[in-house]
Specification:
The chain is mainly beta. It has one helix and 13 strands; from the N terminus they run E-H-E-E-E-E-E-E-E-E-E-E-E-E. 49% of the residues are buried.
């Protein structure tokens, strides 16, 4: 049996993450099944359609109103309001995997771009007090945006030892996307950042069983517009699958995300504004030839739970990837498609 699959692109959407105003560089779920398995050398292209629907209340809604200038950062805030957001985004990732080994492993370099549409709203009652002045506001704030996001370079190194596969990666944010601190909806995040981590994939051709896990840390640079700096984040993404045939596999995916240091620049009533979330859901993958290339489709979804200081909801990812097909004489299980 030939095992071929693709992990998911690094997708960035301000409406579904944590840290400053519920937004961070790393999107939980970026890595999945076969994340550390070697790929076929050469160019590959991945395209992901992403839909998400999330909501939040309390501090997350208050922090967003402070960001857009509706509430002074020095105010004492009592907020009975809900933030809701929906997004439809498309991510494109060209990647080149080198055939010549580097440090005994397989080097790949790629970049990820994003375009899409976001809708965000906050509805409820807000009471803010600055000194002796108390102001109360009822109503709805809403905002929509169609635009482009930041650029996200990604470098991976992978090693194979039989059924065991290992990976290290480096990932970053070049803040060139659509961003204004006074908007509710943004596709860019307004600041740079770097992320480093490592992963492992167990892939057994004899049984058709696969499991992958990838963990990493994100360091966020200061947002020059708001003078806000998000804390350091830890994330762990995993995927498990079983191949029913050479072309079809089913399985489960999940993630855990925890901010480990406080934010700097948050309003006093927000405290450290550390964020957390977990996600769990199913996945389905299908492999098929495209001329002399290899095509790949993957559908996966996550339901989020146990969130703190970030929006919580659900998201669906539909991935299409095309890459070089592996030689028919290949013995070592390989994965070809978009990087991750």
């Amino acid at each position: 049996m030939t095992f071929i699959a693709a992990a998911t692109l690094a997708l960035q959407s301000q409406i579904s993450r944590a840290d400053e105003n519920g937004v961070s560089l790393w999107l939980p779920g970026q890595f999945g099944s076969l994340a550390a398995a070697p790929v076929t050398p050469g160019w590959s292209l991945g395209v992901v359609g992403y839909h998400t629907s999330v909501g939040a209340s309390g501090n997350v809604a208050a922090a967003r109103q402070i960001q857009i200038g509706q509430v002074p950062a020095t105010a004492n805030v009592n907020l009975n309001a809900n933030l809701s957001a929906r997004g439809d985004l498309m991510f494109i990732s060209p990647t080149y995997t080198f055939a010549t080994p580097v440090l005994g492993g397989q080097l790949a370099i790629g970049v990820i771009g994003v375009v899409g549409h976001l809708d965000t709203s906050i509805a409820g009652t807000l009471t803010a007090q600055v000194g002796p002045i108390v102001a109360t506001r009822n109503g709805v704030l809403s905002d929509s945006l169609t635009g482009v996001g930041d650029l996200y370079p990604l470098v991976t190194m992978k090693w194979n030892q039989g059924v065991h596969n290992y990976m290290v990666y480096g990932y970053g944010d070049i803040p060139v996307g659509s961003y204004e601190s006074t908007r509710l909806s943004n596709i860019g995040i307004g600041h740079g950042g770097i992320d480093f981590g490592a992963g492992y994939t167990y892939l057994n051709p004899a049984t058709g069983v696969e499991f992958s896990g990838v963990g990493g840390f994100t360091y966020n640079f200061k947002n020059p517009t708001t003078q806000y700096q998000s804390g350091i984040d830890f994330h762990f993404d995993w995927g498990a699958s079983h191949f029913l045939s050479k072309q079809l596999f089913v399985g489960a995916v999940g993630y855990a995300y925890q901010q480990v240091t406080d934010d700097f620049g948050a309003a006093a009533f927000l405290g450290g504004f550390k964020s957390r979330v977990f996600g769990l859901g199913p996945q389905l993958g299908y492999l098929f030839p495209v001329g002399d290339k290899q095509g790949y489709l993957n559908l996966k979804g996550y339901r989020e739970f146990a969130a703190e200081n970030r929006p919580e909801g659900w998201n669906v990812w539909l991935t299409f990837a095309i890459s070089n097909a592996a030689p028919t004489s290949t013995v070592t299980p390989t994965r070809r498609a978009i990087t991750k």
